[in-house]
Amino acid sequence: MKTKILKMVGLISVCLIAVIMLSGCESVTQKADHQDTWSRIKKNKQVTIGLDVTFVPMGFENKSGKITGFDVDLANAVFKQYGIKPVFQPIDWSMNVTELRNTTIDLIWNGFSITPERQAVVNFSNPYLANDQELVTLKSSNINKFSDMKGKYLGAQSGSSGLNDINDQPKLLKQYIKNQSPILYNSFTNAFIDLNHGRISGLLIDSTYANYYIAHQPNPNLYRVVTGKFPQEQFGVGIRKGDKTMQAKINAAFKKLAKNGELKKICEKWFGKNYNTPLMKLTNNMK
Q1: Predicted TM-score of the model (pTM)
Q2: CATH architecture for segment(s) 38-130+234-286
Q3: The CATH fold of domain 133-231
Q4: For residue range 225-240, what is the model confidence (pLDDT) as tens digits?
Q5: Cα 72 from Cα 52, distance rounded (Å)
Q6: CA pair distance 141, 262, nearest whole angstrom
């Protein structure tokens, strides 16, 4: 009887601890939804930006281990206007919203597509770059359209907007692939390794990554890019719901960079002439 009582006490204790921990986590995220942290960030002159450091050319580690990329240059240009230093923090991309809301990072800035699901839990800056989902295959596989993936393995990144597209519109691609379920990767780098070795037949990926990756391969002609009918996406900066000032400051800086030509310089540095930024249109409409 005594043993049973001790077991019950132990079980109740474990349950209470779990409830307390969950309540603590919930209070942190609830606080993040209402707290404006701009004054703290301005005072400390530092902002922590979460990113996937394998996402070329948006944010990645170069050969010397330095984090660089389009988003890195853009973030530096934005916060230079406010005397704030960005600190780029590598994160598990599938946990990006969690890391933001529990205040481990201050912003998600790394080719972060604006979607209704994400807008329900985070705010976004004005969109700064357009992006498409593309199917990348090897030409030797003779895959020329989505239906050619019938019975073949498809790769996608965990937590990506491409994965959401696959699941949200199953008749476009999902219905054809092996097991009607993609193989998930923590990074596009690992996915391309499997594609190149024939372990998957196709990879659904952001056009910004695909175009840059293929262009920088020793033999770009090995690859074929197949486009489908997935809707065009737009990249934005992920911001906590409570950070209204941060949102306004980033948007104001975007407008200034678009107007003074700095945005164009950054775009052409990474994409040449092949880019589409809604910020240019926004600036033109203001004239």
Answers
A1: 0.81
A2: 3-Layer(aba) Sandwich (3.40)
A3: D-Maltodextrin-Binding Protein; domain 2 (3.40.190)
A4: 999 999 999 999 999 9
A5: 11
A6: 42
